[in-house]
Amino acid sequence: MKNGLNQKLINLVEFYNLIGVDFLSSNNPMSRKTKSLVDISSGTRLEKLNKLKKKLQNIKNCDLKKNANNLVFGDGNINSKIMIIGEGPGANEDAEGKPFVGRAGKLLDKMLLSIQLDRKKVYISNVVNYRPPENRKPSEKEIERYLPYLINHIEIINPKILVLLGSTALNSLIGNEIVISKARGKWVQKTIGSVKPWIIASFHPAFLMRQPEQKKLAWIDLKMIREKSKILKI
Ligand code: URA
User: Fold this and answer.
1) Is residue 182 included in any domain, yes or no?
2) Is 138 a pocket residue for ligand 1 (Cβ < 6 Å)?
3) Mean pLDDT, 10 residues at a time, over the chain (234 residues)?
4) CA of 209 to the centre of ligand 1 (A)
5) Predicted local distance difference test score (pLDDT) of residue 57
6) Number of other residues whose CB lies within 10 A of the CB of residue 153
7) 24, 37, 48, 131: most buried, per Cβ within 10 A?
8) Into how many domains does the chain fold?
9) Pocket probe mutation, ligand 1, options 100, 125, 135, 209, max atoms within 8 Å of Cβ
10) Is residue 159 part of a domain?
């Protein structure tokens, strides 16, 4: 009886891990109000992005940076009105210095293609810009450290639509208490720094590779993005 209960508990924890609930993270609210690192009121978008990139290259006392080969800043069209945020670079991204170029990236490319988008039409970045060792999730401290850079990145791109892939991006920008399986597929318009994009969360492609039956829900989210792009005349 006791063993049966333990097994049920283990199954439940495994299920929650699968859908992205992090039992180890604290519920302390993360400060999402930051002062811009790069002044967004002057210069071209490219100049501002280059300044932000320099700031990330010069980040000090960061174990993620120490263990990584390359900064993974962003990829795609810097003038796009659609910005996609993942979690953090993996081995392939670390080697190439570009986000989403590994297996999850190939799936992301296919997902984008299904709604007539590609990397020349969107802009992609991550919550943290250096690879967490062993592909682990970035810790809360690491997320908090990189959040001002991410917010500034979003301000500079100034997207009309912001797509958050997976629980790390969702929890970093919207709130710790939210579960991806509940939050996905819903539009919210929210102030991020000085901009106010329409935001939608969806499953991370790496999760979809492990749970292909969830692709039908991701497809609903993709269609919502396509519809919203039409409404916003993107
Ligand atoms: N997963 C991510 O979250 N980001 C990448 O860039 C690659 C894989």
Assistant:
1) yes
2) no
3) 54 48 47 77 96 97 97 98 98 98 98 97 98 96 97 98 98 92 96 97 98 98 98 97
4) 13
5) 97
6) 27
7) 131
8) 1
9) 100
10) yes
Residue 157 lies in a domain: yes
pTM for the full model? Answer: 0.86
Query: What is the whole-number distance in angstroms between the Cα of residue 26 and the centre of ligand 1?
Result: 23
Which residue range is the domain that position 140 belongs to?
29-231
CATH code for the domain in which residue 163 is found: 3.40.470.10
Q: Which residue has the tokens 């399986």?
A: 181
**Would residue 70 count as lying in a domain?**
yes
Tokens read off for 171: 């929890």
Q: In the beta sheet, which residues pair with residue 123?
A: 76, 83
Where in the chain does DSSP place strands (E)?
75-76, 82-86, 123-126, 161-165, 188-189, 198-202
* 194 Cα: distance to centroid of ligand 1 (angstroms): 26
C-alpha neighbours within 13 Å on the C-beta side of residue 38: 25
Cβ atoms of 22 and 167 closer than 8 Å? yes
* 100's tokens: 């989403």
SS3 152: helix
